[in-house]
Sequence to fold (450 residues):
Amino acid sequence: MHVMTIGIPELGNLTHLVHDGSQALVVDPPRDVELVEEAAELAALQIAAVADTHVHHDYVSGAALLARRHGAPYLLSADERVERDRQPVQDGDVLDVGSLRVEVLATPGHTLHHQAFLVTGDSGPAALFTGGSLVPGSVGRTDLCDPLLVRHLARAQWSGVRALHRLDPDTTLHPSHGQGSRCVARGAVALGDTPLVLAEEIARNPVFRLPREEFVEQLVAGFGPVPAHFPRLTRLNRGCTHTDPRRTGAAVAADDLHGVLSRGGWLVDLRDRAAYARGHLSGSVNVEYGASFATWLGWLKPSYAELALVSDSPEQLSCAVRDLERIGIEGVPVHTLDPQPTLRPDPYHRRRTWAEHGTAPAGATLVDVRDAEEFELAHVPGAVNIALHQVEQRSRELPPGELWVYCHSGYRAGIAASLLHRAGRNVVHVDDSWDNAVSLRVPLTSSRAA
Fold:
C-alpha cells in the first residue's frame, strides 16, 4: 500500500491517493481535479474510487466530478442529504479497491455525518484518512454546521476520535485539513516530513488526554469567526454535480474597470503591498496574492458584488482565477496592468513600519484588525479592535482623522487599509511584523485578566 499526498496550500488542505500500485482510492479532492489526474497518470494508476469524508465547508469538492470522469463510485455518507449521484456508505461498510481493503468508520463531530476511511493492504501498517475529524495536535471545528449543535458535535468528536484507540497504534494518519485551514480548531500543528502515526496523537492530542467535558469547553472556547462564504460552499457541495471549471478569466480593457467601480463592484489588485502603496487604481482593494488570497476574498466580498482582478502579472491572475474557482467563484474578468508603473502614489494611503510609529500625528487612531483573541493577548494602548472581516461593516465607528492600521504581519492590515481608504478615509498601513513592535519596545498592553 502506498499513499500519495497532494498539498493545496491555498486552501490549507490535503488530498490523498492511496493505492496498491495499480488501483487508487482518492480522498477529498479539490475542484481542479487535474492535479489528481496528473499524479495518477504519472504513477500509472487507475482511479477506482473517490471519497469525501464529509460535505466540505471551505472549498468546492471535486469528488463527484472526478468519479464521473473515471467511471468510479463516489463514496459519501448515506445520511448526507445531497442532490448528486453517490454510492452511499455507512459505518462498518467494507469495500475493495484493487487489493486494498477500505473500511468506513463513522467519526461525527466536524460534521454530523463525518466519516473516516481505514485502508489496509497485504502488509505494513494500516492508513487512516481522517478528513476533518483528527488533525495533528487538534481536531476539526464543530461550529460550522449549526450553532445549536456546537457542544453536541464536540462531544461526538471526543467519543468518535477516542474510539480509534482500538486501532493498531502504528496506523498512519492522513488528515485532509491541515494547519492554516479555517476548518481546524486551535492547537493544530504542521505535518512533518515523516508519516504521522496514531500513537503520537494519542500521546499529545488533547482529545485523547482530557476528560470529555473539559475537552468540550476548551475546544469551543478556541473557535474563531466563521468565514462568511462557508455556508454558500456547503450549499454548493450539497447541490448537483459540478461541471469542469472554466480555468481562465475573460480579459477586460482598462475603461471597463471604471464600470465595475461605478456599479459598486470590487476591483481587486493582486500585487504586493509595497507595489500597491506606490500607486494603484482609485477605489481598488488590495488583496495581495498568496496562500490565503481566496479565503480572504471569498470571506470579505459580498456574494452579490461584481468582481474584477488586476495585476501586472498574467501568471498571478491565472493562479487567482484558479483559486477562486476552488471556492465556487467563476468567470472573473481580469486586466493586466502595464508592467512599467504608471500609477501615482496616493497621499491619503501611505505605508509605514513600527519604527515610524512615533511619527503618528496627535489625534491619529490606531486600528488593530486582528481577531479579538489576538487583541486581548497584547495590543498597542488606545488601539481600536475591528477584526478584518468586520472592517466594512464597522468602519463608521472609527473617529475622524488619520487611521494607522496594523495586524500581525502586515497582510491583513493591507487589505483593511485599502478598504478604509476606499471608504474615503486617510490611512497609514503599518506594514510590519508584530515581532518588530515587540523588539522596538512599542508600548503594549493586554485585555486578558491575570
